[in-house]
Design goal:
The structure holds two protein chains of two kinds. Chain A is α+β, with helices and mostly antiparallel strands. Chain A folds into two domains: about 80 residues; about 230 residues, Bira Bifunctional Protein, Domain 2 (BirA Bifunctional Protein, domain 2). Chain A is built from twelve helices and ten strands. A seven-stranded mixed beta sheet of chain A has the order 1-5-6-10-9-8-7, with helices on both faces. In chain A, strands 2-4-3 form a three-stranded antiparallel beta sheet. In chain A, strand 3 and strand 4 form a beta hairpin. Chain A is elongated. The model of chain A has no long low-confidence stretch (mean pLDDT about 85). By secondary structure, chain B is α+β, with helices and mostly antiparallel strands. Helices cover about 25% and strands about 30% of the residues of chain B. In chain B, a hairpin with a 5-residue loop joins strand 27 and strand 28. The longest helix of chain B is centred in the C-terminal third of the chain and has 19 residues. Chain B starts with a strand and ends with a strand. Classes of the chains: A alpha+beta, B alpha+beta. The interface between A and B is large, with 89 and 96 residues.
């Protein structure tokens, strides 16, 4: 048996070495390696070899087959795509696309904000979008007939029912339903009856925050919000806290950061001022605590709020906020 | 609010450059939106004296002039017909920007250069009113009045050598709505308190009370009503300096009397009104509530129905002014007025606000009164105005004021605990430091025992009523930026709040399934909110009809998104939205919002091709079963088993092909193709498939319990049945499951055939059955027995026949 294997090896190696084109290569493969080829025939004869010789013969035959297969494969590669009989894989064809999903840029911004605050130990709370006057205004220290109500043009549903103009009523609901300590953020949609423009929408999103505990100070408010700003916008930014007025906080502040578009030199986004207003905040007004039955002598707290559209607009450089609600896939695909 | 720098300096020097002042006031909470140097646009324009005018050698309509611009004489070619030697004219020199071009159709500004006009050099331009944007006259050059010296900056001649601050006034600080108010705030920066000018009155012997009587009937809403009378005035314009100031502050000058009332208001913040005494019938003023149904003509000429309860100033017979809002046309000051009544009153802020709101009228006066005017300013403002009217118009200022005081304001004092100040602000200020800071605001704080400061509040600070109000004042003066930052604060974990749904996970799952998230407006057109059996919520005061209802379903919003994208060349879409829908419910008694329901929902929309055009893939369009798969895929991704979770039943809904979706036995929504009619109303002409489900119902959090992997192999057997075409696939699958024993692990329909190889009215369904035992490898005989039982069962129940079997 072994001599015949050697013989076949020499013959086949010579033939493969001499082969110059695909057609003859294919013929050689059929002659030696096909199911009814010469190697297969020797395997067939293996049955009649004495048992003692079988392992050696079998091993030699397997070696032969492997060698010839490798030689044939090498030859095939050497001859390349010249032949027409075997299809050749064009590796430059483009990959196939899988469906591409994506989260809306507003959701993306919201989730990032929520993530930062939840890491700081804030729980997430929610409340109705159709609110009553008490939760949206009264409990938040907006007296009836007070001009502060003009700051927020309201859509009314009934006499004392309205679309919430801010997420602050959720503060009241959280306090009504739990006792201090409280540490929560409240994201959601809000509605204002204002003319729609590139910078102002009738519906938008806010994130509200509330912390109530014993001995909460203005420094705690600053520390927490500066921590958020550094995390969200980067630690190199400058910021300032400026006094302002909200009925439900006192002292109240607006937080500004250096415009990250122009680096503070003044541009369109920051109205040439070099500063961007990003957050309103303040110490919870004692009247707000009283309206939910908390004793302002025992607890203090701070609250803050920010508009998501504005933040997303700044973050992604979207100069017309209406784009956020058109849902054009050419826009959505960019996020 | 527009404040002028020069005016602020009437009350004391302001030694801070304008931009810095704006910034520093901002850090006190008085936001400066804009600092404007008024003369800026006239930089490079000066007064010129025309010395000589000669014909242009090559153009009939042009003149060559020589103009003295102070120390220099310029040759200027001029096209105006009215130019003449000796005139004083505005001259733009090289580099100046002419505000409005007379040649450009849009009047775009242009920069002057030295140039030659038809061969004659011209070194500037003599301008018309129109070119300077000072008036409409474009027919000739502007000739300046008076005797300004050549070379004087034009801005100075026009009274524009000033700086204006546009301030954003927060509603709690009405005192900032005046120059003296802003000057008082500047005192925090300079330490120097401003002084109101002294008023010198030259009164006659006749008491005002002899010609005017005042009765206040509505004492609840009128705290004080004071009036003075000036008789025999000569009406005319106010002096130029006053007109300039009013104009620069944004008000139009009218006549001396009206200008004085406006000027005093801008000066001290107290609104005044002037009547023509001759038009006040009976020489009487009565303050009373409006009678319902009365129509009143205000001095802007508009007829206004008076809101019930509005406070009115009346004469003996009729209304003459809407108190604190706007005067009436029937008693207005005119060119022929000789006797003037000046009114200075103090009104209840809430009443003024209600009236102004009801009238939809917001005036300089109402804005100040509704926020809270300074009750201590009533007499000063009246006296100041009377003195100025007498100064400008002559006449006889009658002795004294008719002054009815209904409620005298109590001097306010507020006790502050220094420990509370430091406790809330995390500061370590001494009592003396606090007193000094409050003192800068004109608040006198005196020690009143241990840990107690008693603060006397000046009358203009109507916002300071509580301890916390004064804590804020200390914080402002101290500077928010000087207060420390407590890193991390103390972390106190509070109870987690029950979120209505597992939103992030659902969104991520949908994105993972290849869908794009959309966010659409909750406010929709009423027609789009109409759903059978659902009463939508409407907005009482919508911006327009298109946004007057709250959505009852997310589907219309997604259809709009689809229509928009199809129109913009993106017809293949997988989109979803998560959001609330609203409807009316039976009104509750407990609270006002019980009559409204909000529900968090998830909707998805598929349309167009399932994949983009690409090689090696046969494209096909989405159909209903992609949508079903999407919903079930979502369930699988959030850890739910579709077969046990979902069931469907045909229903009337979006179109003929609609399924009601039940989840764990409860109805949660529907799924189907959108009817042609609906598609047409959205302008869509390709099939669209949507589902809409209640998200809260889907958000069952299932704890995951691991099951060991099978130790013995599973085998798969394919069986196909020829069935009547009307037999539902779900019935066949149910029969398979029924007849399969515990060895049957899954049933998957993998082929549907209807065609020529089967008799008409028949179809073939092929299922892959997976069989496995937990404790052994199944033998061929066991498999045969299992499959045989299933086949017989299915044949018996559905009348089908095993195909090719």
């Amino acid at each position: 048996m072994l001599p015949r294997i050697d013989e076949l090896r020499r013959e086949a190696e010579t033939a493969l070495a001499a082969c110059r084109d695909r057609t003859s290569l294919d013929e050689l493969k059929v002659r030696y390696l096909a199911r009814k080829g010469a190697v297969a025939a020797l395997f067939e004869q293996l049955k009649s070899v004495p048992d003692a010789d079988k392992p050696a013969a079998g091993k030699a035959l397997n070696d032969l087959r492997r060698t010839l297969q490798e030689l044939a494969a090498r030859k095939e590669a050497e001859l390349g795509g010249a032949g027409a009989s075997t299809p050749v894989l064009d590796l430059t064809l483009p990959g196939r696309q899988t469906p591409r999903g994506g989260i809306h840029p507003l959701t993306r911004t919201l989730q990032e904000i929520v993530r930062i605050f939840t890491r700081m130990g804030f729980a997430v709370a929610d409340g109705p979008e159709i609110e009553d006057d008490w939760h949206n205004f009264g409990a938040l220290n907006f007296p009836p007939d007070h001009p502060a109500r003009d700051m927020q043009d309201t859509f009314f549903i009934a006499d004392d029912v309205l679309l919430r103009t801010h997420t602050s009523p959720v503060q009241i609901r959280v306090m009504e339903n739990s006792r201090p300590p409280i540490r929560a953020i409240m994201p959601g949609k809000v509605y204002r009856n204002e003319a729609v423009s590139a910078r102002s929408l009738v519906m938008f999103h806010q994130v509200e925050g509330l912390v109530v505990d014993r001995n909460v100070t203005f420094a705690d408010l600053k520390g927490t919000l500066v921590g958020f700003i550094r995390e969200f916008y980067g630690s190199g930014l400058k910021y300032k806290f400026r006094p302002t007025f909200f009925p439900f906080t006192e002292p109240s502040a607006d937080i500004y950061i250096t415009c990250f578009i122009c680096g503070g030199k003044g541009c369109r986004m920051c109205k040439q001022g070099g500063w961007l207003e990003i957050l309103g905040c303040g110490m919870v007004d004692p009247n707000v605590f009283r309206s939910v039955g908390y004793d302002p002598e025992k607890v203090t707290g701070y609250a803050f709020g920010m508009g998501i559209e504005r933040i997303a607009g700044l973050k992604y450089g979207i100069d017309d906020l209406r784009l956020l609600y058109e849902n054009d896939v050419r826009f959505l695909d960019q996020f | 609010m527009r404040i002028l720098h020069s005016w602020l300096e009437d009350y004391g020097k302001v030694p801070i450059p304008p931009e810095e002042l704006g910034e520093r006031l901002g850090m006190l909470g008085l936001e400066t939106e804009h600092v404007e140097r008024l003369g800026e646009r006239y930089r490079g324009f000066v007064v010129g004296k025309v010395l000589e005018v000669a014909r242009h050698p090559r153009a009939d309509r042009l003149s060559v002039t020589r103009v003295d611009v102070g120390g220099e004489t310029l040759q200027i070619v001029c096209g105006a017909p009215n130019v003449a030697a000796g005139q004083l004219v505005p001259v733009g020199t090289a580099g100046a920007v002419v505000p409005r071009s007379g040649h450009d159709p849009d009047g775009a500004p242009f920069t002057l250069t030295r140039t030659a006009i038809r061969g004659v050099e011209s070194h500037g331009m003599i301008c018309s009113e129109a070119e300077l944007d000072l008036g409409k006259d474009a027919d000739g050059i502007m000739v300046l009045q008076g005797t300004p010296k050549p070379g004087t900056p034009l801005a100075e001649v026009l009274g524009l050598d000033d700086t204006a601050y546009d301030l954003e006034i927060t509603p709690n600080r009405p005192d900032w709505m005046s120059h003296i108010g802003v000057a008082r705030e500047i005192a925090v920066l300079t330490g120097r308190h401003p002084r109101l000018p002294r008023v010198r009155l030259r009164e006659s012997r006749t008491p005002a009370a002899r010609v005017l009587r005042v009765a206040v009937q509505d004492r609840k809403n009128c705290n004080r009503f004071a009036a003075r009378v000036v008789r025999g005035v000569r009406m005319g314009p106010s002096p130029e300096w006053m007109q300039n100031r009013l104009r620069n502050a944004g008000l139009r000058p009218r006549n001396a009397v009206v200008d004085v009332t406006n000027y005093v208001m801008l000066e001290c913040g107290h609104p005044l009104h002037a009547f023509d005494l001759a038009l006040l019938r009976g020489g009487r003023i009565v303050v009373r509530a409006a009678r319902g149904g009365t129509v009143f003509t205000t001095l802007d000429g508009k007829q206004r129905p008076l809101p019930e309860g509005a406070v009115m100033v009346c004469d003996a017979e009729r209304e003459v002014s809407i108190a604190g809002v706007m005067g009436g046309a029937n008693s207005e000051i005119s060119d022929t007025t000789t006797d003037v009544v000046l009114e200075s009153a103090h009104w209840n802020p809430g009443s003024i606000r209600r009236t102004a709101r009801a009238l939809g009228l917001s005036t300089d006066a109402s804005q100040r009164f509704e926020r809270g005017a300074d009750p201590g300013m009533v007499r000063w403002a009246l006296d100041r105005a009377a003195a100025l009217v007498a100064e400008f118009c002559g006449g006889e200022l009658l002795k004294g004021a008719v002054d009815v005081v209904a409620a005298r304001p109590k001097p306010a004092s507020v006790a502050v605990r220094p420990s509370r100040v430091n406790g809330l602000l995390a500061t370590a200020l001494t009592t003396a430091e606090m007193r000094r800071m409050l003192g800068l605001l004109g608040i006198r704080a005196a020690g009143g025992g241990k840990d107690r400061l008693v603060c006397r509040i000046p009358s203009h600070r109507v916002d300071l009523q509580r301890e916390v109000d004064l804590i804020e004042e200390v914080a402002r003066v101290y500077g928010y930026d000087r207060i420390g930052e407590t890193a991390g604060a103390q972390v106190t974990f509070s109870h987690p709040y029950e979120s209505p749904s597992d939103l992030p996970r659902v969104r991520e799952a949908m994105v993972g399934l290849g869908c794009r998230e959309a966010v659409t407006n909750s406010m929709v057109e009423p027609a789009r909110a109409a759903l059978p059996g659902v009463e939508p919520v409407s907005v009482l005061n919508p911006q327009n009809r298109e946004l007057s209802a709250l959505r009852t379903s997310l589907v219309p919003g997604l259809l709009e998104v689809a229509a928009r994208n199809i129109n913009h060349g993106s017809p293949d879409l997988r989109i979803f939205e998560v959001g609330r829908v609203f409807r009316r419910d039976s009104p509750g008694r407990a609270n006002p919002i019980q009559g409204y329901r909000e529900e968090e929902r998830l909707s998805a929309l598929l349309t167009g091709f399932t994949s983009p055009r690409q090689w090696g893939v046969e494209r096909r369009r989405f159909d209903l079963f992609d949508l079903k798969g999407l919903l079930e895929g979502l369930a699988a991704r959030i850890g739910l088993d579709k077969t046990s979770a979902f069931s469907y039943s045909p229903m009337r809904g979006l179109s003929g092909a609609t399924l009601a979706v039940d989840f764990l036995g409860a109805s949660i929504g529907q799924l189907g193709s959108v009817s042609d009619e609906t598609l047409k109303s959205f302008g869509i002409d390709q099939p669209v498939f949507v589902f809409d489900v209640n998200l809260a119902a889907l958000a069952v959090r299932k704890e995951i319990a691991y099951r060991p992997l099978p130790r013995y192999p599973a085998v798969s057997r394919d069986v196909a049945f020829v069935l009547d075409a009307s037999t539902p696939a779900s019935a066949v699958e149910a029969a398979i499951r029924k007849w399969g024993g515990e060895l049957l692990r899954s049933v998957d329909l993998f082929d549907l055939y209807e065609g020529e190889r089967l008799p008409p009215g028949k179809k073939s369904l092929a299922f892959a059955l997976t069989l496995r035992a937990d404790d052994r490898t199944l033998t061929e005989a066991e498999i045969e027995a299992e499959v045989g039982r299933v086949v017989r069962g299915v044949e018996g129940e559905t009348g089908g026949v095993l195909r090719g079997g």
